[in-house]
Each structure stands twice: as structure tokens, then as C-alpha cells.
Amino acid sequence: MKRIALTGGIACGKSLLAKYLVALGVKVIDADDIVHELVPEPERRRIADEIFRDPAKRRELEARVHPLVRNRLEAFSAASNGEIAVEIIPLLFECHWEADYGIILCVSSPRSIQIGRMISTRGYTKEQAEARLAAQLPVEEKAARSDYVIVNDGSAEHLMDEAKKLVEWLKGRNDG
Q1: Can you give the pTM of this predicted structure?
Q2: Which residue range is the domain that position 56 belongs to?
Q3: DSSP assignment letter at 115
């Protein structure tokens, strides 16, 4: 099985899609979870706004953390034993890791929905939401560079239906 990456914009539904994929029997690892293990919560909270406002500080942190994340992702892939295994990497293209993957998936949402989700579910201000969006490639560009795209602009039930279609699509790639 080729390595599979799932990317997308912030607040597009990557985590919910991952939960559905796990329920459907897919192995999943999330790069954000690895970062959370590597960078303690108090430090993440302290530096979050700063790194999203200052690209140089963000690059400095990423230079320290990304190699460790990449190693963990590679170990996960090596241990998948041919099973369908999805690596969630929000910054896949920003890190230039796309060549490591044979299949790239993307979950996207309209910008207005992303901002609304960040405000309502994460407690961000509109300014904080905009800063986080500005720190990533536009989700439309990520989608254009992906092999399979799910537009998450509806209900949770709709996303579960899309997850089922995705798993069937991936099984077709695994068989061939």
C-alpha cells in the first residue's frame, strides 16, 4: 500500500473525518497529536499567538519539531503492514513532504465556514482565525494538489457518508 496523507485547512474537519475513518477500520495517526506530545500544553498556549504573527519564530519552532514528527510518521507507516493507514498532516505541502506519499487526500471547507468553526468551537477571535489561515496555504490550493478531495460544508452525517466513499476508494487502490 502506498503511503497516504490527509491534509486540509484548519477547521475543515480533518479530526472528525479521522474519527470516522478509525470507526471504519482505518489506521490513523495525526501529526498534530505528535506535536502536542512534543510541545507541552503550557508552552503551546504561550507561544501560539506569537508564532502565528511572526513567521520567523514559527519557522524556528517548525525546524525543531518537524523532523521529530516526520520520524514518527515514517515509523507508523512502516508498521502498517499493508493495511490502509492514513497520516493526517495539516502542513503537508507547507513542509514539502508530498513526495513521500503515493496518495494525497484533502478535506476542505469554504473560508467562511472555517472562520465560523474556529470562532464557535475553538474560541478564537476573527483576527486569530484569520492569522491561522494566513499561516497555511489556501485550502483550495491543497485541494488542487490532492488526489481525492472531500468538501466538508454539510452535516456530520454527510461527512460520515464521504468517509465511507473514501474508504471504498482507498480499498480499490490497495487491491490494484
Answers
A1: 0.92
A2: 4-164
A3: H
